[in-house]
Write a structure and sequence with these properties.
- There is one protein chain.
- About 40% of the residues lie in helices and about 20% in strands.
- It is α/β, with parallel strands linked by helices.
- The strands form 4 sheets. Strands 10-11-9-12-13-8-14 form a 7-stranded parallel beta sheet, with helices on both faces. The chain has a 6-stranded parallel beta sheet with strand order 15-20-19-16-18-17, sandwiched between helices.
């Protein structure tokens, strides 16, 4: 039977293995399976002699079964098969666990003394006996031809695949060996002229060499070719999405002389920064265009992105259009509403009627707000997921503003955009995005950057408190906090969990910030609950006015705490990352982050941005027990070393990899990135972008590039296209 990439797995490998592959890897077709590439290759290890087997390494040997036995386990259900294999250089013990004695006896009979084969496993040692953990094997048959094939394969690099307990690497490798020889024609996304000019392999050769390399030198050109395939497919899809948006018709939203925008700018008590002016002009121009604006605005914490967004909302409001600003948390939504109302002032606010709409508002208050939105009275609407509900309708939605896009799933953003007729879209982020990530993930958006900061900021000093070397510094941290409060200032203390005594210590909205600990490291020491209890008896901080804030508190309670802190009624606010973005309290001078090594670089930078926002100098103390030289410690020290968020974004990408940096919100895009690495492959991505522009420029519908079109159809599903549309 000849397979295509669209052949169902159950038709190619049988229903049993197909079900396992679907459960383990969400694979349904032959194409899905063959896009599951090896993560590394085991050196046939010159077929490592048993006496030289390195403990902890995965190796492959040719050996003979010397003995085998099966027995029921004594202290728990199940059975096991013990096998000893060896060569002239030594012996290795293999252990196989089974559900019952019959299964164990079947393996004993299969691995009877005298059988020879290829055995692979991770080398371990127990009581001075060399062992293989989770061994894979392939026995030689009496058939001489079959034996020759197995021995030849044993001398080739052995692909090691990402595996699960249900589908081991060896099992997956056997399925690939079964399917690959029966694969028919493969569409090649690279036009022949491009393939020749770029020195790439054809698709068939690349796929063969990545899964069945004859030598290690086969792997690199195959991987490079497949990376170019991924880059070209993704960049072409992004450019197609941009073209699709520009094919839509948008309502032009021009500002009028003497209108809301001009009146607002005349009343501003300060001068816009150069970047605010430039980006504002770009946005204003987009809003008068023939197609919907689709712009990403990056800017440091406190650089004035909200002001840029407000100017755009006022420009839309002049023609009766409504703007919806969606924020990731209720605390931030309420903060935005207060900031916008304050910036508008008593003259303009009643005209545009800024309205808050969140899920946890009292029912009567929410109905009243929803009516103002539906009637078109509220020209500026601020909210959370409540804006996405079916019951929330707009009279004339003209602009969607998404704040901190990386905290939202793409489906949520699209649900909001669907409430208008091709509304303009403005995406804001205070998490600087490296150029290569922006090009890979946001390639269909126009991008603006605000680098300059408003005048009058006092700046921030950052220090690491390394408790591993200086445990006494923990007390000094709180003494320093008390000193700041004594000067009339306020302090944030941020924890990585709500309650460390509970497994689910972080609320969903808070947990997004956390990164897994280094291997072998314990969980966070401090939760909000534990820190509040500890500070209650502290000799200096215990007498200060404290409050807690986290994602599991009721909405009205969270808002009340935040407002009280903003009014200066709380000295020390103990919180989770619910305060990560958007919270603006100019009198807050100090940010203390406990278990700082549990946060990503960008999250630490965001948290630090909560202080030093006014004339009061900012102080950021990053408390960590991570040992010097560890990756966790490097993250913390990188943040303390610079205030440049764009530099930190590059560091974050290098330290954590693009998978973590992109976040789950970009799942539609990430599903296409199997081999492509946005840092290492930045030049290749840029070249793919150029090629995609050339191809689409000459052939917008890909009528003459049917193979590329077919690959895009297969790899970039409708869901993925929706994801691209919503970024």
């Amino acid at each position: 039977m000849v397979f295509s990439l669209d052949t169902r797995l159950e038709d190619a490998v049988g229903s049993g293995p197909a079900k396992k592959l679907e459960r383990a890897f969400d694979m349904r077709t032959v194409g899905d399976m063959l896009a599951h590439y090896p993560r590394r290759y085991a050196d046939p290890a010159e077929l490592t002699p048993i006496r030289d087997l390195p403990v902890g390494e995965t190796v492959t040997i040719v050996a003979e079964v010397l003995s085998s036995s099966a027995r029921a386990m004594r202290n728990r259900s199940g059975a096991m098969t013990d096998v000893i294999i060896g060569d002239e250089n030594g012996r290795v013990s293999l252990t196989f666990f089974a559900k019952g004695l019959k299964q164990a006896e079947w393996r004993r009979d299969q691995l009877h003394p005298g059988r020879r084969g290829v055995f692979s496993g991770k080398v371990g040692s127990f009581k001075d006996v060399t062992q293989f953990s989770h061994p894979q094997y392939e026995l030689f048959d009496d058939d001489e031809e079959r034996r020759t094939q197995v021995e030849e394969r044993a001398h080739r690099p052995i692909p090691i695949y990402p595996a699960t307990s249900a589908v081991a690497s060896g099992q997956f490798r056997e399925l690939v060996e079964l399917v690959l020889p029966q694969l028919g024609e493969i569409p090649d996304p690279l036009p022949e002229s491009v393939r020749t000019a770029e020195g790439m392999l054809d698709a068939r050769t690349a796929l063969n060499q990545v899964h069945r390399p004859e030598t290690k030198t086969d792997v690199d050109p195959a991987v490079r070719t497949l990376r170019m395939h991924e880059a070209l497919v993704l960049q072409t899809a992004l450019l197609q999405q941009r073209a699709a948006v520009r094919a839509l018709t948008a309502t032009p939203r021009a500002a009028a002389p003497g209108g809301l925008l001009e009146r607002f700018e005349q009343a501003l008590p300060y001068t816009l920064t150069a970047d605010q002016k430039t980006v504002g002009e770009q946005v204003a121009s987009d809003l008068t265009g023939a197609w919907p604006m689709n712009r990403l605005v990056q800017g440091e914490v406190g650089s004035g992105k909200t002001l840029v967004a407000l100017r755009a909302m006022l420009q839309v409001a002049e023609s009766g259009g409504q703007s919806a600003l969606i924020a990731p948390t209720e605390v931030l939504a309420a903060q935005h509403l207060r900031s916008i109302t304050k910036m508008l002032g008593p003259q303009l606010a009643p005209e545009v009627m800024p309205t808050l709409l969140t899920g946890q508002m009292p029912a009567a208050e929410r109905r009243k707000a929803a009516l103002r939105v539906a009637a078109g009275q509220a020209l500026i609407v601020v909210g959370t997921h409540a804006l996405l509900g079916e019951k929330t309708t707009f009279a004339e939605l003209g602009l969607v503003v998404v704040d901190e896009q990386h905290r939202f799933g793409v489906e949520q953003r699209e649900a909001l955009r669907a409430k208008g007729s091709s509304p303009h879209a403005l995406v804001l982020t205070a998490t600087p995005i490296p150029r290569t990530v922006a090009m890979t993930v946001f390639g269909d958006l126009d991008t603006s950057v605000i680098r300059t900061m408003p005048a009058g900021r006092a700046g921030i000093e950052s220090f690491v408190a390394p408790l591993a070397e200086h445990p006494a510094w923990f007390q000094r941290v709180w003494a320093r906090a008390a000193e700041e409060v004594a000067q009339g200032r306020q302090v944030f203390a941020v924890c990585a969990a709500i309650d460390t005594t509970k497994k689910t210590g972080a609320a969903e909205e808070d947990a997004a910030a956390l990164v897994p600990p280094d291997e072998g490291a314990a969980g966070p020491r401090w939760g909000v609950v534990q820190l509040d209890e500890a500070l209650a008896t502290h000799p200096t901080v215990g007498t200060l006015r404290r409050a807690v804030l986290h994602g599991r508190m009721p909405s009205d309670e969270k808002d009340a705490v935040m407002q009280a802190f903003a009014r200066g009624e709380i000295d020390v606010l103990i919180a989770t990352t619910v305060i990560e973005v958007g919270v603006d309290v100019p009198n807050a001078s100090t940010m203390i982050v406990l278990d700082a090594d549990r946060f990503g670089v960008s999250q630490l930078h965001q948290l630090r941005g909560r202080v030093g926002r006014g004339s009061v100098p900012g102080l950021c103390l990053l408390v960590t027990e991570a040992e010097e030289g560890t990756l966790a410690r490097e993250r913390v020290e990188a943040v303390a070393a610079t205030l440049d968020g764009f530099a930190l974004a590059e560091v974050d990408l290098e330290l954590r990899g693009e998978g973590d940096v992109l976040g789950q919100a970009q799942s539609g895009v990430r599903s296409s990135l199997r081999l492509l690495r946005v840092v290492k492959d930045s030049r290749l991505i840029a070249r793919a972008r150029e090629l995609a522009e050339e191809i689409l420029g000459a052939d917008p519908t890909l009528a003459a590039h049917t193979s590329l079109r077919d690959v895009i159809t297969r790899r970039v599903t409708e869901d993925d296209r929706a994801a691209l549309a919503k970024n």
